[in-house]
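Minimal example, chain plus nicotinamide-adenine-dinucleotide.
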Amino acid sequence: MKSPIRVAVTGAAGQIGYSLLFRIASGAMFGPDQPVILQLIEAPIEKAMKALEGVSMELDDCAFPLLKGMVLTDNASVGFKDANWCLLIGAKPRGPGMERADLLKDNGKIFTTQGQIIDSVAATDARVAVVGNPANTNCMIAASHAKRLPAERFTAMVRLDQNRAQTQLAKKAGVDLTAVQNIFIYGNHSPTMFPSFAHATISGKPVPAVITDSAWLQGPFCETVGKRGAAIIAARGASSAASAANALVDHVRSLVTPGAIHSVAVKSNGLYGFDANVWAGMPVRTTTPGSYEVITGYAMDDFAKSKIAATNKELVDERAMVTELLG
Ligand code: NAD
Ligand code: LMR
């Protein structure tokens, strides 16, 4: 039996937390032979801590063999202590009529403190995955406060967008979901994101050779994927939670699986024409568990270049809004 890893989760009593924790404890995120200790962090609010207690009772009642312990806390220094993975979900979700960037002022400051604390108390091999919106910029804020942990350990989630894009392409082509491969998300987790359909394949053929309606690919397809979060808020009255939790399971599972090819928002370092210091979605290949290399060399046509320029501009603008939060 492997020794347990420590997984810190913020916003653990929230909507996403409620769909996520049971799957981590069941082995879906780290594998069926990897025991876990869950370090559950909530805001210092009585109601939230009480709800967290209820969630931990339910986790107990599942009798998960892999769950070797739980820490329940509203103190981030306790919650992130020796954590191998830090899953940063705790933040306000947007409501109808808002863009995710509207959350920056409220949510951005959470990631300043958490970045500092993770850097001082988490395990030496700590990895960080940011879900709280606006995820790319919050991730950049947290990473900017880390002096010990390298920037590449901080990733933000665009996997929900990748999963959404895969389904939309499969539906349009009338094929099984698994026939769609290599659909990657570039840029911001926002309506400007670019699902790069030209490099994706359906049953091994380039998507544009199978879906020949290029107006649909450039228009409704990109728009549906980009605005899916808002469509869910409009229909459900609350932001996506189960699909977001599922995407985080996929994000981390792919990052601990050598050879996996998937979309992650990482420090761009200037790749694909992004500003070097923004966190942008791009294709990566997992090398060793927790580490990855960006897949470079996908050629971009003029349409793709213009989409990447637009999403890069938005990321640069978001960074300008939070300069006082950067370390
Ligand atoms: P929620 O309101 O149900 O839960 C958020 C939880 O975070 C609450 O329990 C709250 O008490 C807690 N919290 C707030 N500040 C905290 C702090 N400083 N430390 C620890 N906990 C804190 O919201 P939710 O539906 O779970 O969504 C959480 C975030 O995830 C939102 O910002 C939402 O927009 C974002 N989200 C991102 C994606 C994505 O693809 N990146 C997808 C869905 C949702
Ligand atoms: C999503 O994409 O569903 C989430 O980021 C929630 C939102 O605000 O859209």
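The two ends are 40 Å apart (CA to CA). The mean pLDDT is 97.
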